[in-house]
Structure formats: C-alpha cells, structure tokens
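Annotated sample (chain length 383).
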Amino acid sequence: MSVEANAMGIRLNPDVFVSYRRTDKEFVERFVSVLEERGPEVWWDDDIEAGDDWRESIVENLADSDCLVIVFSKECNDSTQLVKELAVADHLKKVVIPIKIDDAEPTGSFLYELAWRNWINVHPDPTSKMDAAAARIVESLKEAGWMPSPRRSPTNGSPEPAPTPGAPSASAASTAAFAPPTASAPPEAGAAPAPAPSFAPPTLTPTAAPPAHRSTGERPSRATASSIPGPTRFRFRDAFPFHWADFVAPVLVFGVVLFSPAEEGQSFAVTLGDSLLVGLMLLAVIGLIAFPIRYYRRRANPYRVARNLVISNLTFAVGGAIAGLLTASSLVEEGETTGSVQIDLSMGFFIFGLLFAAVSFVIFFALSKARAKRELRAHMETV
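Output written by the structure step:
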C-alpha cells in the first residue's frame, strides 16, 4: 500500500520506514501488510513510483517518518545502503527498532549502532510471529508519542467500519449538528412555547500534535542537504582527551632532565632536546592507556576514535622528531652524519606514533565490542 496520498489526494507522511535486504522481500511484503492493519502508515522501497529518484525518495520518506524498522538478517551485515539509512535515522533522532528474523548477530557498524536499541526477536519462526512483532512496534510508537491517523479508529488503528444502512454517516451527522434549525409552524393557542433551539456545537476532542523531534523539539518535514550527516568538525578535546593529572609526571621528568648537570661539552640545545624527548615519550605512554579507556567511557564513534588516535599519536611523533633533531649531534657515531641521524630519528618516531595509535585502537575496540555484545543480549526481546 502506497502512502503517497490518501483518498482525497493529500499526501500522508509515513509513520514507519522499513529497511531490509532484497533477499527478505517476501517476508517484508507480508509484514508491511500486517503492520498497516494496526494503524501506522508504512513506507518501503516498493512504494517508489516509476521515474522517481530512488535515493531522493528514500531520504525524503525517512526524514518524514517517525520510526525506522530494520528487518535484520545475515545479509544485512554486508549492506552499505542499510548503514547509510541507519546513519540518517540516527542523525535525525528517529526511533529505531531492529527485528531479528534469523540467527545472525550484527557485526561491525551494526553492532556498534544497534547494540543498545530495543530489538524484537522473531527467530526461529518469523512468519508466525509477525502479528506479535507488529503489536510491539505500535506499542513503541505510542510510547514515543505517536497517534493513529484521524482517518483511522483511535482504539485499535483499524479502518472505521462502514455505516449501517439507513443510518447517517459521520460526516452527515457532523453537518447536521451545526445546521441551523428549520422554520416551524407557529404554536397553537394555549400551547406551551417550544424551547429555544441550541446552537452550541458539540464538544470536540483536540487532535494530538505529531510526535516532537527529540533533539530540537520540531519534527523535520522534508529532507534537505543538511539532514545528511557530514564530516565532523575537529575538536582538540576529542583528539587529546587529557586530564590535568596526566601532565604532572611528564612535566616533573622534563624539569629534572632539563636542570640536571649537563655532560662535558653538551650544549643547552641538546639538554633541551633530551628533556622534551623524555617528557613527550612519557606523555605518549600515558595516552596509550588513558585515551582508549576515555573514548570507551564516552561511547565515542569508532571511526572518529581511529582518526583522533592517528592525529594525537602523530602529533607526539612530530614532537619527538623535533626533540630528536636537537639531540642528533650528540648521537652521531663513526661513519654517520648529523643529517642521516636526523632522518632515522624522524622516521622512527613516525613509525612508533602509528604503532601507538594501532595499539590504542585495539584496546578501545576490544572494550567496546565486549560492551556491545552485553548490551545486545540485554536489549533482545523475543516475541
């Protein structure tokens, strides 16, 4: 059933957007019918009209909907399109409800994004559990503030029954309630006067407002270019999640080395380089352990964590290379030149910077994956 327009030609915004893989189309087609019988307007890609831009239709209807339902199966883990739709829904703060129809578990981006969502598990017999899953989705929609469309019954969401033959329709009764009384014959002599007609309209129940957008208080009505998640702005605090206490030990070590008696013939530049080198290496080791734990506690996005760890550790490497250049003259051995030692030091610091970033990310990823699996089990409801 297409939700592009109602019987009067007025476009209806979908309540539910269904995302799925083509291999599950047979199940989704039946499930959409079951869900629509309970009231919500459902949009899925079968509603795309011939000649329409399918990308534009998907983003537009996803922005207009209140909820994204993901019919999740093993093939979904390999779908980049589902990842994009989930990213748009998360950016617009939509309700996201995954439905698990087989024994596969989410991996990669899906595990990170969907672990804390409230799952509906219809495996191992998804066909027989369609109605229970649909009821659970409607319940979740109502908890989020959704109300059935005015053209549907407010009790169970089913279409209003046809009027009984001979009885006035709802529209006729409403018109009669507001119609002025017709002229009547004058009362007979001695008869009591007729009561004055009442023109007060019947009490109307106010229509519930559409669900509010949870982040801004407004529901987006149309997708725009700004609705699509773009590159995030770099912030120093994200790439370098330091606490003030992290600097105490490096600063103390820097001061001790800087003001310790210099060796015979050693210049101040070499002493300064040694101090910077020792202080930066100690700070990098602290970051190697502290950064992934702090990213984990913040529930940071893995892709941004990888980017930030590369930025922070390469920054340490640059600092170490600069410090190494100051001390290179004291490290020159027989057969070497200062330039060759400087190049070796710089390359070594960059290699160690990348290794530190990799180790930090492995620590963060291991912690995050373990937590995601715990949350996935805790948020899985079998119907």
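Annotation: Residues 1-11, 153-160, 162-191, 196-231 have pLDDT under 50 and may be disordered.
Annotation: Strands lie at 16-19, 42-43, 67-72, 95-100, 119-121, 380-382.
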